[in-house]
Inverse folding.
């Protein structure tokens, strides 16, 4: 069965510090992987996605993620965090069903940024 | 245009009311989704329409009734809801199976 685990419920980092959010998935085939960000009361915005090819993917707002098949991981990184990055981050895996994806979301990691 | 538009943004309804949530996209996407999100929780899939046909119903109570009138529109009809149905309702769309989902800003529903 497909599942996504985000082991960190809350993370607090200082502004300017580096960030890594962890994501582990369980999926039988080659996964489609995503990171979404959500500000309070808002919808989800796509940060980046992995379908195939280069395992290091670049996204918006200076984020990147690395797909490691051997570890079933897709961790999100940013070298220098800005106060505006404070939000909830969701990792997701997309399972192909006919002509659409069924998306499985992790439980989310809330990022706080200290000034 | 890469937007999914949801209306209304906020809705307060009584337990005997009937209301509808609306979702619209003009990206040519053929899959559309309804998610329910409670506070501090991830989105929870409710329904998926693919090519205007209901493809997934995640055992959602019948007081929620989805409708896809055409490839750009998705509605969620609400009737006799309970206070525990209060949540953020998110609509999303995707082009096909090898693409990401685009989310709307959501409708904040409060059932009183």
């Amino acid at each position: 069965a497909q599942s996504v685990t985000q082991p960190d419920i809350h993370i607090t980092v200082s502004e300017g510090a580096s960030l890594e959010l962890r994501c582990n998935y369980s999926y039988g085939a080659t996964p489609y992987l995503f990171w979404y960000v959500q500000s309070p009361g808002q919808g989800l915005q796509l940060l980046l996605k992995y379908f195939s090819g280069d395992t290091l993917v670049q996204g918006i707002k200076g984020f990147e993620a690395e797909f490691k098949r051997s570890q079933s991981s897709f961790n999100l990184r940013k070298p220098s965090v800005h106060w505006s990055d404070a939000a909830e981050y969701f990792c997701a895996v997309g399972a192909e069903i006919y002509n659409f994806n069924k998306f499985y979301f992790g439980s989310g990691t809330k990022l706080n940024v200290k000034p | 245009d890469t937007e999914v538009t949801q209306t209304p943004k906020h809705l307060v309804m009584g337990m005997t009311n009937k209301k509808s949530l609306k979702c619209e996209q003009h990206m040519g996407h053929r899959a559309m989704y309804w998610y329910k999100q409670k506070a501090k929780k991830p989105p929870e899939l409710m329904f998926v329409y693919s090519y205007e046909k209901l493809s997934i119903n995640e055992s959602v109570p019948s007081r929620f009734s989805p409708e896809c009138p055409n490839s750009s529109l998705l509605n969620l009809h609400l009737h006799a809801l309970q206070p525990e149905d209060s949540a953020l309702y998110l609509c999303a769309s995707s082009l096909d199976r090898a693409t990401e989902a685009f989310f709307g800003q959501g409708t904040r529903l409060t059932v009183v």
Q: What stands out?
A: Chain A has no helices and twelve strands. The longest strand of chain A covers residues 87-97. Chain A touches chain B at residues 32, 34, 36, 41-46, 49, 51, 90, 94, 96-103, 105-108, 110 (CB under 8 Å). Residues 3-114 of chain A form a domain with the Immunoglobulin-like fold (CATH 2.60.40.10).
